[in-house]
Design a protein that fits this description.
Helices cover about 15% and strands about 30% of the residues. It is built from seven helices and 46 strands. The strands form nine sheets. The chain has a 15-stranded mixed sheet that branches. Strand 1 and strand 2 form a beta hairpin. The longest helix is centred in the N-terminal third of the chain and has 24 residues. It starts with a helix and ends with a helix.
Length: about 600
């Protein structure tokens, strides 16, 4: 008993001596609380009174400031726009210093030997570790420098504004709690080089919509993907064999789960709260899937639709980008033939994509790859030597223009069930079997775009097509057409002397067209790029085409008034609806 009392007494004395030592040296200077040990000052708290930049001084109490510790800015009542590190500050004594700080940016003196900063983000000196991206950063998107190989503890925690983070190829480690309680990041691009994830690295990311775990990861740590309540798609390429409750839990919005063929076990409760789960895409065979053991309380996992033999690695090798209705797919892999109702990683954009761009070294587009893209109007293929298979674009009812630049060509009917009149533009003639497909060969040189053959389009579709060409070729000053026929759209020519408008009848044969706008000073020539952009954003409603052709050898100004033609647009829309209804009646009527 005496021995125990002695030990307790010594422990108490030691504790008191430590507390005495700390408080004996604790001091304040302005907004800083600090201690001095061995002639060096360590900041333990910063208490700003206004939302103004904070420049940490080189010295406090006559001692050089060398470290910052504790939760220095946690208690701040204001958001600090900038915290500046002096050259003397070379250590952060705890990992959580800035994890909850109300801070917008960190800057560092260039002479500092331990730290550096860029765009308000803190790194170590050689920028191999990202230490902190302040939670109130003004950045909307961050592409992490290529030198970074590790993301530090809590580096992206508690984010309020940052929506997109692109991690660099060469990154290997994502640290503990790196993105915990991140409430703003919707997109996280992770490189294939990542091999190590630490505990709770993505926990409570409440805005993240999609996450891919690359093949180099060997295990999912505790809390890895828990309470990511906006996550709709989880793709696991890592060759793990067990999906565990703990690393995975409470993915309430999860719709699509992509799994490697190595999975053999799903432990109890892992997907108990994933009631939104619709589909599981499994890389293994049917036999592999039937051998998977699913433990209790995983009902959503058991009732989800399952697709086996899913080519996850092939799709992962592609780059898929979508922005404002424009979907671009690039890479070196073929887009494989699939059953019409198979899932593709771009299917989420089927109802919103109006322009599809295929680029890179994609060798072929298989059947049904883009079936039922209901809003798709323009397809641009810029992949040399690509081949488009039959039924590649099935039931894309809005499709009107297909552009094949440098492509090998296409099968006889890649577009079954699509619009009633589709212009297929290419640099060489194609063999197309359907009477609704019209091959128009095109060329471009010195600002002039030349259409060879018949171009039959509604005027809106025609100018949409010109807009697409403009985005591919560059400035287009004039057009040459062998034969241009506007379908369902009135075209008027204005007599230059009398000002009288008269309808233009017949097709334009071997015509050359130039775009004009009319303003207070008269006519002004513009490029077709400017014209189509103005029509698109609504800033141009009245414009003119100056053209010469075989039937109108004199220069003729042809007037288009987009506002006056709105009624005709809806007439065209009504015709399309009637056509669709007739097809449905024929289909269901046998």
């Amino acid at each position: 008993m005496k021995k125990l009392r002695l030990i307790l007494s010594l422990a108490a004395a030691l504790a008191l001596s430590i507390l005495f030592a700390v408080f004996a040296f604790a001091d304040t200077q302005g907004i800083y609380t600090y201690t001095v040990t061995n002639g060096e000052a360590a900041i333990t708290a910063i208490s700003p009174t206004e939302a103004a930049p904070i420049l940490i001084p080189e010295t406090l109490g006559g001692a050089p400031v060398t470290s910052i510790s504790g939760n220095a800015l946690d208690a701040s009542a204001v958001i600090v726009p900038e915290l500046h590190f002096p050259a003397s500050l070379t250590a952060i004594s705890t990992r959580r210093v800035f994890m909850n700080a109300r801070l917008a940016a960190i800057t560092v003196d260039e002479a500092n030997p331990a730290f550096s900063a860029e765009n308000g983000v803190l790194y170590n000196k050689d920028r191999t570790t990202l230490l902190d991206c302040p939670q109130y950063t003004s950045l909307d998107s961050l592409t992490v420098p290529e030198t970074v190989t590790a993301i530090g503890y809590g580096a992206f925690a508690n984010q309020k504004n940052l929506k997109r983070v692109v991690l660099p190829e060469g990154l290997t480690t994502i640290g503990e709690q790196a993105f915990i309680f991140n409430g703003s990041t919707e997109e996280l691009v992770m490189p294939d080089s990542v091999t190590t994830l630490r505990d709770n690295c993505f926990a409570y990311m409440s805005a993240l919509r999609s996450l891919t775990l690359p093949a180099g990861i060997t295990r999912l740590p505790g809390g890895c993907i828990t309470d990511c309540t906006a996550l709709e798609k989880l793709e696991i390429l890592a060759p793990i064999d067990t999906l565990e409750y703990g690393p995975i839990d409470n993915l309430t919005a999860l719709k699509t789960l992509i799994l490697p063929g190595s999975v053999t076990t799903v432990t109890a409760n892992t997907f108990r709260n994933s009631a939104a789960l619709e589909r599981i895409l499994f890389a293994g065979s049917v036999d592999d899937w039937n051998a998977v053991t699913v433990e209790s309380d995983n009902t959503p996992f058991l009732i989800a639709a399952v697709q086996t033999d899913y080519p996850a690695e092939t799709y992962h090798a592609l780059t898929i980008r979508e922005n404002a209705g424009v979907l671009e797919i690039s890479g070196e892999e073929a887009l494989p033939d699939t059953d019409r109702y198979d899932y593709h990683p771009w299917d989420d954009y089927a109802g919103t994509t109006h322009t599809l761009v295929i680029s890179g070294g994609i060798p072929s587009i298989g059947g049904n790859v883009f079936a039922d893209f209901s809003a798709l109007s323009d397809v641009i293929v810029r992949a040399p030597s690509v081949w488009i298979s039959d039924a590649a674009f099935t039931d894309c009812m809005a499709l009107s223009s297909v552009f094949l630049f440098g492509a090998t060509g296409c099968a006889a009917d890649p577009f079954p069930g699509c619009g009633t009149w589709i212009n297929v533009f290419s640099e060489s003639p194609l063999s197309l079997s359907s009477p609704d497909l019209h091959n128009v060969t095109v060329s471009y040189a010195d600002g002039t775009l030349t259409y060879a053959g018949l171009v039959r389009q509604d005027a809106y579709d025609f100018f949409d097509a010109i807009s697409v060409f403009a985005s591919v070729y560059g400035e287009i000053d004039r057009l040459r057409v062998e034969r241009l026929q506007f379908d369902g759209f009135s075209v008027f020519a204005t007599d230059p002397e009398s000002g009288e408008r008269r309808p233009v009848t017949g097709d334009l044969e071997n015509a050359e067209l130039t775009a004009w706008l009319k303003n207070d000073t008269g006519y002004a020539s513009v490029t077709f790029n400017a014209l189509t952009a103005g029509i698109s954003d609504g800033s141009i409603t009245d414009f003119y085409l100056s053209f010469r052709d075989e039937t109108h050898p004199e220069e003729t100004k042809t007037e288009f008034n987009i506002v006056e033609r709105i009624g005709e647009f809806f007439q065209k829309l009504l015709r399309a609806i009637i056509t669709l209804l007739n097809r449905l009646l024929r289909f269901f009527g046998g």
